[in-house]
Every structure is written in C-alpha cells, then in structure tokens.
Amino acid sequence: MYQQMIFVNLAVNDVDASKKFFTELGYTINPQFSTDDCACVVISDTIVAMMLSKQRYADFTKKEIADPTTTSEVLLCLSAESRAKVDELVDKALAAGGTGTEEAMDQGFMYGRSFDDLDGHTWEVMWMDPAAVQG
C-alpha cells in the first residue's frame, strides 16, 4: 500500500542553525536532499520538514514570506507515544534554544505542550490515550 508523505517547507534565517536545532531534538538530516540553502529534516518515514533559506523559499512562491515571530502561518502538530515523550521532546527543544509558547494542555485523555523553533515556527507535541480514540 502506498504511504502518502508530507513535506513541510519552512522559511528559516539560518539553515545551519536549524540543522543543529533539529538534530538536538533527535531528528536526522538527509544529506541527499540538503544543500547550503536547504536542510531536509527527517521526522518520520512519512514526515519531512524542509528548512529553506528565505531566498530559496522565495523560489517557490510569489507571496510575501510570513514572519513567524509576529504572525502565525501554520501550527505544526506532532504526535507522541506517551506523555513522557511529549515532555522529552519539548524539553529538548527548549534546551536547544526554542521558546515555550503555552502552558501544558492536560485533559486527562490528551496531553500536549508546544514550542517555537529558532525562527518562531510553532510546533505542538500531543499524546492522546489510544483507548479514548477508539471509544
């Protein structure tokens, strides 16, 4: 069966700093699809984040590039396998220079936290009790 992938393209100020940030979170960089102006961050087998210099990003759009420190262009949400994994990933992001954005959201069956990366893109990390999803 074909597994559809998602490639999230984000404009960044410093490609090398983004590479360092996301590797500190435990992700890998695919060198085959990375250049001086683009980092291919492998999040999973089906999720890839392309960190593009603003100049490279502009090659793909005629629209003004949003400043994620002052506007919200997208909310990126990643699932986690447990509450502890939510905390682990967000804590790594904060230690690597990210910024906490909200208090933890805890509804018992669902738990999440979020952070802004070095460029201000907001990443949410969520865990949901599988039994609650099935029920």
From TrEMBL:
Domain Glyoxalase/Bleomycin resistance-like N-terminal: 5-44
Signal peptide (from-to): none
SUPFAM superfamilies, alphabetized: Glyoxalase/Bleomycin resistance protein/Dihydroxybiphenyl dioxygenase
Protein name per its UniProtKB record: VOC family protein
Natural source organism: Streptomyces sp. R21
